Amino acid sequence: LLFLVSNLCGKCRPRDTGLLQPSLNFLYWSLHQTTPCSQQRAVAVLLSNVSLLELLQKVLECTWLRSPPSGPAYLSSEDALLCSGWLLVASLLLYQHRYNTEVHQTLSLDLTGVLNAVIFRNKKPILLLVSIMQFLRVALQQNFSSSLLVMVGQNTEQGATQPQLSSLQDAALHPLATQQVFSLVVSLQNLLVHKDLLLSQAVVACLETLVEYLYVKNQDVALHVASQPWHRFLLFTLLNGGQKSLLQPEVLRLMTLFVRYQSSNIISQKEISQILQEAAEANLAELPEATSCALRLFLCQV
């Protein structure tokens, strides 16, 4: 069935949303809701289908052509297809790396376009932003060096006209540019203020991976990003004043990030003590799974 559906997708056009959207969702869940042995075979089937990969490339490129709605952001059928496309490609990228699966067709994506889709949101629906950030997170984890993915549009000509210091930083952060990194961080900070649970989880995960990527490339830039004073304001904004407000998963994960990179101007010993006190008073058996996992990571980091 996976083989037949993937072949069917390869014969479609990006505008065939009624057929493509559920088909891509089927492929996505076929990768995730199966045993590791079957998962490896499923990845091999999908990555051997050149027509499917060519279609996915065309679908993702529609992200740059999307015109923002005049009213509040909503999820149209075209946006839903984009979400399915980004999530499927992120999964293929992840599992191709895990199983070292042979690739028969590479995907070429504009790195500047991917970053700008998050930086300049243009009333994109939350689910579309989350899907793009999931892809960006996987690409960062793989250092933009997957055999399935080729990132283009890296502004090499622009870098030649920049000051020497900026050019050195850009070389260290390649294929990202320093200005792109700072713009992305500001955008992620702004997205956190929305207090949407799904969006907050995706933003924090993307921020974690970005700082890890930066730390490997250039520790000074990573520590500078992790110690931005605006992060402290964000923490106060995220706290809702409830009795257990510090035990929110996204707050705990942010705190863990700041402890890991020793951002003492963001999180002090006082906040760490408050979290420990609230954890000691909480009924751990009643905590949601996301909170328990975030709390465990925080305690291990401390």
TrEMBL record:
Source organism (scientific name): Sclerurus mexicanus (tawny-throated leaftosser)
Annotated protein name in UniProt: MEII1 protein
PANTHER family for the chain: BCL2 INTERACTING MEDIATOR OF CELL DEATH, MEIOTIC DOUBLE-STRANDED BREAK FORMATION PROTEIN 1
Encoding gene, per UniProt annotation: Mei1
GO BP terms: meiosis I
